[in-house]
Amino acid sequence: MRILVINAGSSSVKFGVFEGGAHVFKHSLDGLEHIEPALEKIPGILKENGYKNFDAIGHRIAHGGEVFREACIIDSKVISAIESCVPLAPLHNPPNLTGIRIVQKTWPDLPQVAVFDTAFHQTMPQKAITYAVPQEWRDLGLRRYGFHGTSHKYVMQRVAEELSKSPEDLRIISCHLGNGASICAIDKGISVDTSMGMTALEGLVMGTRSGDVDPGLFAFLYRTQGLTADQIEKSLYSESGLKALAGSNDMRVIEDKAADGDKKAQLALDIYAYRVRKYIGAYAAVMDGADVLAFTGGIGEHSAAMRKRICEGLDFMGLDFDEKKNAAVKLDGFEAPQIQKDNAKVKVIVTQTREQWMIAREAENILRSKAVTNIDKEMRHGTGR
């Protein structure tokens, strides 16, 4: 099958073509003020590179709310349900919907598949998803959902493959560390907790996002500074995190500044690693230990120094880190190197995340299962040949 995957964000559009499971073409349009013109360019770019016909199109959808527990074929009801989740992801779901609508106009007969960033975390128990707020607030859908689900699901599967085990036999702490960052506790093949919450703002310190802060800050800033909800939200999403602490959201720049003696950069690295390590410890407690600690995302894959900083002090959970193996990591494919010492109780694995590949695979699986279902229906009704 040939699958086109589209990830339409608030200021960028990434798309790729997968054929027989291989990523045969990828392209990115970045720094966009308006994404609709960029989406309209996709057919021309694909045609110029020899790609005209597809079996299906897969879309990354940021927030599926409580409605979507798995990927699905897109129809009018699905679009309406995604629209109902816009208040939960006002920055992300609207461009996702724009991508769907433009594809409908361009390829009206092609099946489209929605793959939700939140779906993998729908297995989290009530004690992990429930905020201790008034019932009338919870009735509005205020609860923890989690994100990066497609990435964490891929990491789970890749780690299990590397260890020649089933995910059901493993307790995995998956660390997706990029400009956006989250950690997921995966116990016996399912997500049982994750650091992001109702929005992608909760949890770790990120490139430009604050992560966990005291909610009392909002009332304080409103009362003393006259800041509006929109101003506070913009600051927490776009002007906080590493950018606020060190003047840059680029980990490479911050590490260079810290090496040159910049105190703010050094503190930013300490805060970042501390928050990650705190969540790792919490999730080891949640799962009564861990078998694997996995790193992915731009920082998780490429910063040996940050991996080392995070792993320092985790020997209490059976982690015995190998600095030489860590420093030697070079990822350019499907490798998943282990960077713990040979007899360590906890495996430490670094792997690239392949979210687009997972979306393509989900789309292909849905199309194949739909075809099987249709054949079954024909056989039951005596119309099969």
Can you tell me about this structure?
Helix 11 (263-286) crosses helix 13. 41% of the residues are buried. It contains 15 helices and 11 strands. With 385 residues, the chain is α/β, with parallel strands linked by helices. It is globular, with a radius of gyration of 22 Å. The strands form 2 sheets. The protein has a 6-stranded mixed beta sheet with strand order 3-2-1-4-6-5, sandwiched between helices. A 5-stranded mixed beta sheet has the order 9-8-7-10-11, with helices on both faces. It has 2 domains: 2-116, Nucleotidyltransferase, domain 5; 165-353, Nucleotidyltransferase, domain 5. The longest helix is centred in the last third of the chain and has 26 residues, at 355-380. The protein starts with a strand and ends in a 5-residue tail after the last helix.
Q: Which short descriptors sum up this protein?
A:
single chain; 385 residues; alpha/beta; Nucleotidyltransferase, domain 5; 2 domains; six-stranded mixed beta sheet; five-stranded mixed beta sheet; 15 helices; 11 strands; globular; disordered C terminus
Please outline what is shown here.
This protein has helices spanning 35-48, 76-84, 93-106, 126-129, 135-138, 149-162, 216-225, 229-238, 241-246, 251-259, 263-286, 297-302, 304-311, 323-327, 355-380; strands at 2-8, 13-19, 22-29, 56-61, 72-73, 112-116, 171-177, 181-187, 190-194, 292-296, 347-350. It is an alpha/beta fold. Helix 1 (35-48) crosses helix 3 (93-106).
